[in-house]
Amino acid sequence: MAELRKIPNLDGLVEIFPRIFHDDRGYFLESFREDWLTNLGIEERWVQDNQSFSQKGTVRGLHFQHEPHAQAKLVRVVSGKVLDVVVDLRKDSPTFGKYFSTVLDSERFNLFYVPKGFAHGFAVLEDAVFVYKCSNYYNRESEGGILWNDPALGIDWGVSDPIISEKDKLWPSIQEFKEQTGGL
Ligand SMILES: Cc1cn([C@H]2C[C@H](O)[C@@H](COP(=O)(O)OP(=O)(O)O[C@H]3O[C@@H](C)C(=O)[C@@H](O)[C@H]3O)O2)c(=O)[nH]c1=O
What we know:
single chain, 184 residues, mainly beta, Jelly Rolls, two-stranded antiparallel ribbon, 11 strands, 42% strand, globular, dTDP-4-dehydrorhamnose 3,5-epimerase, isomerase, RmlC_Cupin_sf
């Protein structure tokens, strides 16, 4: 059985630690079970799987999609190690603007469930193949983000001077985001 852990103080986030079976051949694990989440009352319809590779020292994020294309995500690595980061952008959330980070690695193969309403990103601590399920299709026009290194977020990414896309250098601060949208 996998171990499920709700993240205290940030409602809606769940970390999942699958049971890993090692033997002479290698290892086996269940990398997805719908009932992990439905047992917690979380219903998602996963419609898209994504995979990316990133070199050590990369940061991707912090991303979300606006409604009606908002996405919940179920993220993990298949190789390497990342620091996965989410920021609560839910309009009426008492924890709006708060972040949570957790290490995802290919020893524990832990997964992280990120509901709609959060910005998501990760810093690559060891070259990583990152895979994730999404509950809505990619929609370029609905892409949004906030600036990964906005001092107001206070995120310790564990990398300095990262490899980062031009797009990700230009997202607004959380203050600008809040003024422009009020939240997700
Ligand atoms: C995310 C995505 C990108 N693309 C294309 C657009 C672009 O040409 C190329 C690379 O896109 P990006 O630079 O946005 O990729 P990336 O920075 O890896 O974007 C991802 O970052 C992480 C942190 C997330 O949370 C994801 O939801 C997603 O936003 O792939 C798709 O075709 N489908 C998709 O679902």
